[in-house]
Every structure is written in structure tokens, then in C-alpha cells.
């Protein structure tokens, strides 16, 4: 079963017998087989005929809708979780201060440890003593945040530790990006202010819906998170469980795309966006959960750097290759794909919620 990406400005998805046909605006036709499709990801102004929708519904294929610049807009799913007992357990755990604090602490611990492991790799590769020193300082300060996790008395404190560690991490991530034209001074979003930020934002979007699919496969309520604040329409649990995967998947792909020269300068474009523009980077909860500095989104127009269509294709290709990569997964004592690891982590979280496991153990990047 494949994740199918369709990038088009004015394409049309239609039906012919038991197949889907996608027509580009130039008349180019691509045949898609529903029985081989796990999920559709549509990027841009793509119309879907009624017949195509019925066929997609018949095979219960989820659709993720992204804008032409790669921002998450919405997702079509077919069923809410039916296991009301599991959902009730999720909210019982959220209401249990001690248990929720333990789970949130594990999530923060996993994220920071993975960030440190990545920075240690960067430090080992560098021949610049000043760079090594800067990274070492950030790592030591991040380790101090880890030590404070066990003494946190509420989840707000854990959020503060996670945010502080993230700022330290991003302050030295630039040392692992070699091209002179690749710009990364700090994390920015909505819209991204540099080419590196454009890639990170898009990768986090891809990661978000992939983690969401893993959670949904276990019948868990994607909105019943712990570390991230519960709010109307927000997939808080998705943001919780994607934290441990941000660095080993998204950040590592981003650096490789630049360092291996897979991305070029002309894979990016600078735009001035107006809120009236349909391609304006729409505020979504993925941005909100990253927004540690209370950046205002209420502007009439703003400059941003975005990936071109060709650049988006390159990032998607690298993301899918990463998801299929086989790596050693300690709990199963064998190599499995990152996609499978996400599902196994969702299974573990479910067992913790049901009381079958005492502790949530995040995936650790080595």
C-alpha cells in the first residue's frame, strides 16, 4: 500500500471503472489503483469528480489536503474511533495529574535526548573548534533541562523545559548545514523566512499527518493529548507523539537535502503574501504548537520563502525514502521501517493508557 502524492496547480481527479485518473492541466494522464493506495496527499488546486469521490470512499482512502506551498489545510477521514472505553481511558489519564505528568515527562525526555544525539553527531563531524565549543555549551545546557524533568511539578513546567531546549537546539543546528546559500538564523514559520525554515515546515507537516495515521490505526483519539494543550479541533496527541520523531526524521532529512546538494537555490522562491491570497500560508495547529515566541499572525501581507513545485517533489521523495528506511528497533529487537516504528509507538501508548504497560518509552535516536 502506497502513499500517493499529487502536486498540481489545476489538475482533476476522476474515475474510470475501478481506477482513478488524474489529469494535469496539460492533459497528461496518470492512472491510480485504489486497492494499492493507503492514502492520498493532494497539493494545490485539484478538483475531484463525484465519481472519484465515491470510489475513494468505497476503498476508505484518507485524503490529506495541502495548499500549493505545502501547508496542511485539512484531512478527510471516514470514521471516528469507535472504542469509547479506550477514549474514556485516555481522558481518565489526562485527568490523573501524576500519570499525565509521567507521560508528558517521557515525551519531553525523548525529544531532548534525540536532539542531543543529533548535535553530538554534528559536533563529531566538525573540525572547527569554535563550532565544537558552541555545540558543547548547548548540549550541556540541554542536559540540565533533562535533569529538571524529574522534578517538574506540573505540565506547564515541562512545556517550558521543552521550549528552552528547542531554542538551544535550533541555535546551533545551522552548523550542520554547509551550503553558503542555505540560511538558518532561527526557527521561523507562517510563512518561513528562509529556505531552511521552508523545508523544516514542510517536513513537519508531512510528519504530522503520518503520525496521525499511526495513532488513528490504533483507535486512539488524536485530540486527547497530554503535553500539548487540549483545544477545540486541535490534534494534541499527534503533536505529543510526533515530538520524538522531529529530529531523527524531519531535521535529519532537511540537513541531508542541503548538504548532499539535492536541493538547489532555484528550488525556492520568495513571495509577498496577502491574507486575501488563497496561497497565503494558512495558520494551522502545527504552526501554533511550534510557536514558542507568541509570533503574531495578524498581518495584511508578509514576505516568505517557499519551496517551488520541483523543490516540494524532492522533499517528498526524501521523506518517503526515510519512512521506508529499515533501522534497528530495540523493543522488537529487529530492523523495521520508520513507518512501522510510528505504529509500534502508538501501540505502546495505547497499552500505557489501558494500564497494560507502566511507562511510555519514546523512540530514541542513536
What does this structure look like?
The chain is of the alpha/beta class and 366 residues long. The protein folds into 2 domains: 2-61, Ribosomal Protein L15, Chain: K, domain 2, CATH 3.100.10.20; 84-353, Four Helix Bundle (Hemerythrin (Met), subunit A) (Up-down Bundle). Helix content is 48%, strand content 16%. It has helices at 50-58, 84-95, 97-125, 129-149, 155-173, 195-216, 236-259, 285-290, 309-324, 338-353, and strands spanning 2-7, 12-16, 19-23, 29-32, 37-43, 47-48, 63-66, 72-76, 268-274, 301-307, 326-329, 334-337. The protein has a 4-stranded mixed β-sheet, covered by helices on one side. Strands 4-3-2-6 form a 4-stranded mixed β-sheet. α6 (195-216) packs across α9 (309-324). The chain is globular, with a radius of gyration of 21 Å. The protein starts with a strand and ends in a 13-residue tail after the last helix.
Amino acid at each position: 500500500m502506497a502513499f500517493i502524492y499529487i502536486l498540481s496547480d489545476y489538475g482533476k481527479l476522476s474515475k474510470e471503472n475501478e481506477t482513478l485518473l488524474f489529469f494535469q492541466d496539460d492533459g497528461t494522464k496518470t492512472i491510480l489503483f485504489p486497492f494499492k493506495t493507503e492514502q492520498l496527499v493532494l497539493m494545490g488546486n485539484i478538483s475531484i469528480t463525484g465519481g472519484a469521490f465515491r470510489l475513494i470512499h468505497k476503498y476508505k482512502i484518507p485524503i490529506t489536503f495541502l495548499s500549493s506551498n505545502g501547508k496542511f489545510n485539512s484531512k478527510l477521514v471516514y470514521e471516528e474511533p469507535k472504542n469509547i472505553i479506550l477514549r474514556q481511558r485516555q481522558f481518565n489519564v489526562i485527568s490523573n495529574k501524576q500519570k499525565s505528568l509521567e507521560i508528558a515527562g517521557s515525551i519531553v525526555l525523548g525529544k531532548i535526548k534525540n536532539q542531543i544525539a543529533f548535535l553530538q553527531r554534528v559536533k563529531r563531524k566538525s573540525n572547527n573548534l569554535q563550532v565544537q565549543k558552541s555545540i558543547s555549551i548547548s548540549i550541556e545546557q540541554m542536559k540540565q533541562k533533562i535533569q529538571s524533568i524529574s522534578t517538574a511539578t506540573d505540565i506547564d513546567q515541562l512545556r517550558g523545559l521543552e521550549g528552552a531546549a528547542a531554542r538551544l537546539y535550533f541555535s546551533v543546528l545551522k552548523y550542520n548545514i554547509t551550503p553558503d546559500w542555505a540560511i538558518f538564523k532561527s526557527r521561523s514559520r507562517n510563512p518561513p523566512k528562509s529556505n531552511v525554515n521552508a523545508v523544516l515546515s514542510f517536513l513537519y507537516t508531512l510528519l504530522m499527518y503520518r503520525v496521525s495515521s499511526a495513532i488513528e490505526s490504533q483507535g486512539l483519539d488524536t485530540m486527547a493529548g497530554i503535553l500539548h494543550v487540549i483545544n477545540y479541533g486541535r490534534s494534541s496527541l499527534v503533536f505529543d507523539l510526533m515530538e520524538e520523531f522531529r529530529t531523527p526524521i524531519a531535521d535529519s532529512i532537511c540537513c541531508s537535502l542541503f548538504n548532499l546538494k539535492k536541493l538547489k537555490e532555484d528550488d525556492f522562491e520568495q513571495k509577498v503574501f496577502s491574507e486575501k491570497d488563497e496561497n497565503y500560508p494558512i495558520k494551522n495547529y502545527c504552526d501554533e504548537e511550534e510557536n514558542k515566541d507568541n509570533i503574531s499572525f495578524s498581518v495584511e501581507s508578509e514576505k516568505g520563502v517557499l519551496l517551488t513545485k520541483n523543490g516540494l517533489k524532492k522533499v517528498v521523495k526524501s521523506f518517503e525514502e526515510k519512512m521506508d528506511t529499515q533501522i534497528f528497533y530495540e523493543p522488537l529487537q529487529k530492523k523495521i521501517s520508520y513507518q512501522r516504528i510510528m505504529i509500534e509507538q502508538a501501540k505502546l501508548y495505547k497499552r500505557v493508557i489501558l494500564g497494560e504497560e507502566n511507562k511510555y518509552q519514546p523512540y530514541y535516536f542513536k
